[in-house]
Amino acid sequence: MAPSFSLPRDGGSNASLADYAGKKLVLFFYPRADTPGCTREAIDFTRLRSAFSEAGAEVLGISADTVKAQESFRDKHQLSVPLISDEQHQMLEAYGAWGEKSMYGRTFMGIIRTTVLIDADGRIARIWRNVRVDGHADEVLAAAQAI
């Protein structure tokens, strides 16, 4: 079963797993708002939002950025998918998207680009770890249509 969550989102309200009961849900965890890879990924999910809706799926983006940073990111790139702020890393850890990373020979803790597809019964149907952005949203859409 998918771990429950209730966290602040852009627009000032909260988003929780219970809000999406009976629907498929795509959670894409991204390292940082308004960086090149994260921007491409969020734009791709926004571009496909109506196709996800037709497949009975909702899409949420999650990072450790503040709500204010999420709102700036949304406005700058005209994103239509809700963006969740997980500053305390509770949801990131629960879904395995927080862990050890390395860059330029340095090891540190951070967000591992991960996508989770949850079926309409609240069960995790598929997990993509260490996601490559190009073509990823289309691949997730195909998986959402197949369940």
Classify the helix fraction into a percent range: 25-40%
Task: Assign an overall shape.
Answer: globular
What order do the helices and strands follow?
A: EEEHHEHEHEEEEH
SS field, number of helical segments: 5
Question: What's the domain count?
Answer: 1
CATH superfamily: Glutaredoxin
Per CATH, what is the topology? Glutaredoxin
The CATH architecture can be named as: 3-Layer(aba) Sandwich
Keywords:
single chain; 147 residues; alpha/beta; Glutaredoxin; five-stranded mixed sheet; two-stranded antiparallel ribbon; 5 helices; 9 strands; globular; peroxidase; Thioredoxin_domain; AhpC/TSA; Thioredoxin-like_sf
Characterize the structure shown.
The protein is an alpha/beta fold. It has one domain (22-146): Glutaredoxin, CATH 3.40.30. The protein is built from five helices and nine strands; from the N terminus they run βββααβαβαββββα. The protein has helices at 36-47, 49-54, 67-77, 90-94, 136-146, and strands spanning 6-8, 14-16, 24-29, 57-63, 83-85, 98-103, 106-111, 114-118, 124-128. A five-stranded mixed sheet has the order 5-4-3-8-9. A hairpin with a 5-residue loop joins strand 1 and strand 2. The chain is globular. The mean pLDDT is 96.
